[in-house]
Amino acid sequence: MEFACALDGSRAGAVALRETDGVLRLEVDSPWGRLTFPQFNLVTVLGALRRRSVAALYALDRELAPFWCPTCSAVYCGVHWESWDVWDEGFFDQTRGRCPKGHERMLLD
Ligand SMILES: [Zn+2]
Ligand SMILES: [Zn+2]
């Protein structure tokens, strides 16, 4: 399932269930790369996808919907998110972002 930017309609990311070697995984594509989740609640995820609810995905795990701004209730693409990495004493800590309306959130960690 693909999600489009609220401002320009371009592809912001995608969430898909994929079976590899008999193991079902949840894949999340975002402007910050692809994340694979081997463990998730299938029933809850399917419910969110069936309703096309990015808010429900975000509620499950913020990293399932890194392109989503919960304050705006909107999806934005990589062009519209301003993002930066946060390092803690030389180690990658998290990627944070700011939506076009100035709301800041953790995107990935
Ligand atoms: Zn926002
Ligand atoms: Zn955009």
Which terms would index this structure?
binds zinc ion; three-stranded antiparallel β-sheet; mainly beta; four-stranded antiparallel β-sheet; 9 strands; 109 residues; 46% strand
General form: globular
The biggest sheet amounts to: 4 strands, antiparallel
Distance between the termini: 23 Å
Query: What structural category do the secondary elements indicate?
Result: mainly beta
Provide the β-strand percentage band. Answer: over 45%
Rg calculated over all Cα atoms: 14 Å
Number of strands: 9
* Hetero groups: zinc ion
**Sheet with most strands: strand arrangement:** 1-2-3-4
Q: How many domains?
A: 1
What is the average per-residue confidence, as pLDDT, rounded to a whole number? 95
Q: Could you name the ranges where pLDDT drops below 50 across 5 or more consecutive residues? A: none
Q: Order of SSEs, N→C?
A: EEEEHHEEEEE
Task: Count every helix, treating DSSP H or I runs of 4 or more residues as helices.
Answer: 2
Portion of residues within helices? 10-25%
